[in-house]
Amino acid sequence: MNSSASAPGKVILFGEHFVVYGAKAILCSIDKRIKVTSQLIDEKKIKIKSELGNVEADADSSSNDSHELFKPFVYLADKTLKKFNKNCGIEIKIESEIPSGIGLGSSSASCVAAAASITGLFEKLPREDILKLAIEAERKIFNNTSGADCSVCTFGGLAEYDIKNGFKKINSGSDFDLVIANSKQSHNTSEVVEKVKKFKENNKELFDSLYKQESELIQDVFVSLGKNDLSKVGSLMSKNQALLEQIGVSTDKLDILVKEAKKTSFGAKITGAGGGGCIIALVDKSNITPTLTNLKDYAEVFSTRIDNRGLVDTF
Ligand code: MEV
What we know:
2 domains, single chain, Ribosomal Protein S5, domain 2, Alpha-Beta Plaits
């Protein structure tokens, strides 16, 4: 029997990094997905097949050092086999529309889809339980995650998130598109988060002030989203970018992309950890084409809209 599930990627519209320290973030899932298909196999192995490579781990080892990237899947498979007392293995196939390592949530989406697909071999869990498992799994490679990314990949839509209160959908009725430009500078989210931690430790007062500015800015975003005032939301995005630049997560290439994007869009910023990866530009029908055309000369670009489905499973 096969068990398949898919989850969307995500962009962070506001609040990355500050969310790790308790601030609110605003984020949405996007119309690009990762699908995971699992099946039980007789051999006592966890076999993973993906575009990033094929690996095999022993079914009773959740800490196989040779496959860093695949640790979350080995963890999920191992935990599930133990829970159901199964003396066999699992084969996991990962198919992705989301490039990895560019800040669009490929790691979180794959953890969410894998948690649903693997547990789905035995039981259908509520989304809250899948989310808990996915965060546990992602912590095998990224211990400091705020949980924001896995939450939006599970529930989908446009949402606010903070560590204390968790995930809450925003029903603002706002209607926008996003242009995404990929700098092709690869980054490691965990390393960038660690770098910001050091920045915070060495610049306590400055960080506190930036944190406060971010929290105030996000309150303004709620008001502007409620009015569908995209021009204001865009200008707040550009303000958020200035805060991110100050904590050192932009790069020369990302600065250029943001500068170019701002010429035609409502506003632009890094999305996700930064240090490479993607920028997003807020647009609607009036300025989507010029923004795509403008950024095409500098980066790989595409447009996206909010995905409202979140996790989808097909047992
Ligand atoms: C990464 O997409 C977002 C960060 O805020 C980390 C996190 O929230 O776990 C940089």
